[in-house]
Amino acid sequence: MTTKLRNLFAIGASAFLLAACQGENAGDSSEGAGDSNDTDTEETADFKLGMVTDEGGVDDRSFNQSGWEGMQAWAEEHGVDDSAVKYYQSDDAADFVPNLNQAIQDQYDIIYGVGFQLSDAVTQVADANPDQHFGIVDAVVEKDNVVSLNFRDNEAAYLVGVAAAHTTETDKVGFIGGIAGPVIDKFEAGFVAGVESVDPEIEIDIQYAESFSDAAIGQQIAAGMYSSGADVIYHASGAVGNGVFTEATDRMESGSENQLWVIGVDRDQEELGEYADGNLTLTSSLKGVGTAIQLASNQAMEEGFPGGENLVYGLAEDGVGITEGNMSEDAWAAVEEARQQILDGEIEVPEAPEAE
Question: By C-alpha distance, which of 320, 319, 233, 236 is closest to 280?
Fold first, then answer.
């Protein structure tokens, strides 16, 4: 299982090109690979995957996009045509149930709700359609027709916290969360613990956008943090993070006195850190959303749908990780050491922030 997950995670962490995202609120896979044998294609021909995004949209360059890239990779792996995978984009929470119902009408074998915000909608629609198979990412829905896919995000967040602490020159860093809740709590808790493991005197500015889609709010919060002296910001906020990168690149291109850094989330966001004189993405915490979707889908095809199960992926399963990015050699060495300590059980990473 671990070897299989490692191989798939390597695929999921790569930057697959998105299919065109404009127009209809649905996307198609990239063209099927010609190397798959005919038997595999025939077995997969009638098996289709649907995906309903959260409010960040499929081109958020983060969480939803990672899920969609995983579905595209699944289609390529099995050599199926464009109609085998499809996404339904949600502009807000009111779209969740209609999109799930539309996917049922379109006869997709497994329909994935990407993000904890879809938990109630998936529960409601799963109750009304007991013969339909669903998946939920970043939540647990205890239904026989739902598989839950979750991650130890706190472990990867701890590692980027170590990287931030070894990189900051102002001894002040920032964390920008999307919508507060148990999932983003893990990012915050891990990041804070990682920073404090290196130097408990480093100041950590923690703020929430209460959105996963509003890039303008992300830019506004980042502007305040950088103006207050932070030189490294980690965001766990979906498309809100695009505004964080915009603010950092604008400041660097305007001649910032400090070297500013952004830490990406869910997928490698190095391309977002490009500016005239270099790249300011320090690292990115990786989350195998697409990999988990591939694994669950393959399991359903080969062994039967894993309904009612909560599948959890962390460092040990290669389900989360971080990129080397633009870290210094010393920072990367410290990250590697911390990673091994987590795997060896020497470090237990908290899942929730300490109560104030």
Answer: 233
Token output for 36 = 């798959």
Domains of the chain, CATH where assigned: 2-151+288-313 (3.40.50.2300), 153-286+320-343 (3.40.50.2300)
Report d(CA 241, CA 300) in Å as an integer. 34
- Structural element, H or E, at residue 137: strand 133-137
- Quote the CA–CA distance of 233 and 326 in Å, as a whole number: 14
14 CB contacts (<8 Å, ≥6 apart)? none
Q: What is the pTM of this model?
A: 0.82
CB 242 within 8 A of CB 267: no
CB proximity list for 338: less than 8 A, separation 6 or greater: 158, 159, 162, 194, 197, 347
Tell me which residue of 313, 334, 304 sits closest to 154, measured CA to CA: 313
pLDDT in tens, the chain (356 residues): 433 344 444 434 433 333 333 233 444 433 333 333 444 445 555 899 999 999 878 887 788 898 999 999 999 999 988 789 999 999 999 999 999 999 999 999 999 999 999 999 999 999 999 999 999 999 999 999 999 999 999 999 999 999 999 999 999 999 999 999 999 999 999 999 999 999 999 999 999 999 999 999 999 999 999 999 999 999 999 999 999 999 999 999 999 999 999 999 999 999 999 999 999 999 999 999 999 999 999 999 999 999 999 999 999 988 999 999 999 999 999 999 999 999 999 999 999 998 75
* Interatomic CA distance for residues 339 and 354, integer angstroms: 22
